[in-house]
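Help wanted!
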Amino acid sequence: MITTSALQVRYGDTTALHPLDLDLSAGRIYGLLGRNGAGKTTLLSVLAGFRAPSAGSVTFDGAPVFENAAATTRICLIRDDGGLGDPTDKLTDILDMAAILRPTFDRAFAGELLDRFALPRRSTLGRLSRGQRSAFGVTVGLASRAALTMFDEAHLGMDAAARKVFADALLADYLARPRTFLLSTHLIEEQSPLFEQVLILHQGRLLLREDLDDLRGRGVAVTGPATLVDDFVSGLTVLAERRLGPTKEVTVFGGLDDEHRRLAGRAGLTLGPVAVQDLFIHLTGGLP
Amino acid sequence: MSRLPIARYLFSSHTLFLIMFLGAFYLLVAVVVAVAALATPITLSGVDVAGQALHWLALGYGYSAATLLTTMIVHGRTRREFLVQHPLFQVVTSAVLAALITGVYALEAVVYRAAGWTRRLQDHRIFEATDYPTIFGAYWSMLTVCLMTGAFLGAAILRWETAGALALLPAAVVVVYAGAANGLFSLPFARVGLDVAVTAVMVAAGWALLWSAVRDMPVRIRVPA
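Answered by r_m:
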C-alpha cells in the first residue's frame, strides 16, 4: 500500500526523520506512538504529500505520493491543527466542498457523523469549540473513505463520550469497508485496543514495529500482596508500580520463564497483560 | 467527478460570492451618490470613483488564495492542480466581474442622464464613459493581475513568513506596470494605454512568481484560538 524508502526529512540543520524504510500493507489499523518531537507529524505529513521528502521516496501502490493526485485523493490526513476550511465556512459547505474535491467522499455518511457528534450543521468552523473542531475533523476523515486514512492527534479536546463515538465509528466503518488507518496518539491506553500493529518512533527513527499482541507479550503485570510481589520481581526489570492498600501491581519488562510462572502460581500472584503505555515509556527511555 | 475539481468548487461558491459582493458594493455606491446629491451637484461618475477601491479588494481577495491552497491539499488535491485551476478561475471570474462592472457603467449613464447630472471620469482613465469594450478590457486586465499578484503575495508570506515580505517588490512591479496598461492603477510616470500584450505578460509573470512560491510549499496550518 504505502512504502517509504530511505525517507528523510530535514528542517534546516535539524533532521526530523532519519532514513526510514517502511511498508504498511492494506486493510490494517496501525498505531503510531512517539514522544513529543519524535517525528510523528513529520512522517504523517510526508506520507500524505503535505510536504516533500528531503531525501528518499514515498510511494502509494507503487506511484510517488507528492504532487500525484491519483495518490493524494486516496490518502487523507486529519491533523489536530485544522486546515479543513475557512473559519467563516459553514460545516455543511465544507462537506459539500470535500465531496467535490475527493472522489471517494461519502457526503451522506458525513451527515450521519455530524449528528452522532451532535455538531451544529449551520455553524461555521470558527465558532466550534476545540473539541467540536476535532469531532468535525474526524467526521471529514472517516467520510473521506480514503484507502489510507490517518489521524494525527485528531481527538484533541474531545470529551470522553465523543472519543468513544470516534472509536466506535472508526471500528464499525473499518469492518464494513476495510481500509488502512494510521492513528497517531498520546492516549495510548485508550486507543491501543484499536491497533493491530504498533509503530514507535523515537528521535526520528523507527524504534519498534510489532503486532499489538506481541508487544503486550514483552511484559507482564504481576499483582498480589505487596511483600510477595516485591520478592517476586526482585532482579527483574520493573517498568511501573501501582499500590492499592496491601495489594500491589508491578509491570515487568520481558517475558517470564517457566520457573517464574511456577513461583507466581505457588505464591498466588496474578499474572496479566501489561499496559502498552508502560512499555512505551520504558522503550523510549523511561520517565524524565 | 469533474476533471477540474478545484475550479468547479471555486466557480460554484467563490464566483457567486464575488458577484454578490460586487452587487452589494455598487448598491452602497448608489446610496452614497444619492445622499451626496441631496447636498451638492453631482459631477463625477460614482462608479468610476469607487473603481479605485477594486484593485485593493482584488489584491486582498487574491491574498487569501494561499489559505485556500492549504485547504485543497488537505482535501487531497495537489499544488500542480491548484496552479492550473486557480488561475483559470481568476481569468474567468475576472471576465464575469468586468462584464458586471461594464454593465454598471452603462446603467449609471442612464441614471445620470435621467437625473440631469454631469458625469466625468477620472483624468487618468484610458477609456471614455461610453467606451464599453475598453472599460471591460481595462477592468478584466486589472482584476486578473491583482488576483494573481495577491495570490503570490499570500503564498510568499505563508511560505517564507517575514522574509516573504520581500515579495512586495516583484508584486509592486507587476501591479504598477500592468496598471499603466489598464489605467486603473496609473502613476504619472507610467501610462501606456490598454495593452493586451502587457496584461498577458504581467499575468504570466504573476503566475511564474506564484509557481515559485507554491510548487513545493509544505502545508502549514494555523488554527484560530
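OP: Thanks! One thing I noticed: Helices of chain B lie at 5-39, 46-63, 65-74, 79-115, 132-160, 168-182, 196-214.
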